[in-house]
Design a protein that fits this description.
By secondary structure, this protein is mainly α. It is built from four helices and no strands.
Length: about 130
C-alpha cells in the first residue's frame, strides 16, 4: 500500500514537468520504457534472475529501439537527434531499475518464507 501511495505522489508531481518537455521526448521515454521492460523480462528469464543482466537487458533493448528509430528518422527525414535517443535509453534504464527493485523485494520475501518453513535447519537458497 505504501508503494502505491508513493507511486501516485511521484506521478502527480511529475505532471508539471512533463508539460515543460517536448511531447516527442515523452513518447521516446515511453517507447524506451516499453522496450526496456521487454528486454528486462527476456534477460531475466535467460539469466535465471541475475539482476545485472536484467538491467543490461533493459538498457540494450531500449538502446536498440532508439537506434532503430533514429536510423529511420535519418533515412526518411535527414534528422538524427541524440536527445531522442537519450530519452529512449533513459526510459529503458528507469524501468529496468524499477523492475529490479521490485523483483529483489519479492525474492527477499520468498527467501524469508522459505527459511521460516525450516526452523533451525541450515538451508541453501541458491
Amino acid at each position: 500500500m505504501k508503494s502505491i501511495i508513493i507511486g501516485i505522489i511521484i506521478f502527480f508531481s511529475t505532471l508539471p514537468i512533463s508539460a515543460q518537455l517536448q511531447e516527442d521526448k515523452v513518447k521516446h521515454f515511453g517507447a524506451g520504457a516499453l522496450s526496456g521492460a521487454i528486454g528486462a523480462d527476456i534477460a531475466d528469464r535467460i539469466s535465471n534472475g541475475n539482476r545485472y543482466w536484467r538491467i543490461a537487458g533493459a538498457f540494450a533493448s531500449s538502446l536498440m529501439a532508439g537506434l532503430a528509430k533514429e536510423a529511420y528518422d535519418e533515412h526518411i527525414y535527414n534528422g538524427w537527434d541524440n536527445r531522442d535517443l537519450t530519452a529512449t535509453v533513459l526510459g529503458g534504464v528507469s524501468v529496468g531499475i524499477t523492475i529490479d527493485i521490485f523483483s529483489e523485494k519479492k525474492n527477499r520475501r520468498n527467501k524469508e518464507m522459505f527459511i521460516s518453513l525450516y526452523k533451525g535447519k541450515a538451508v541453501s537458497i541458491e
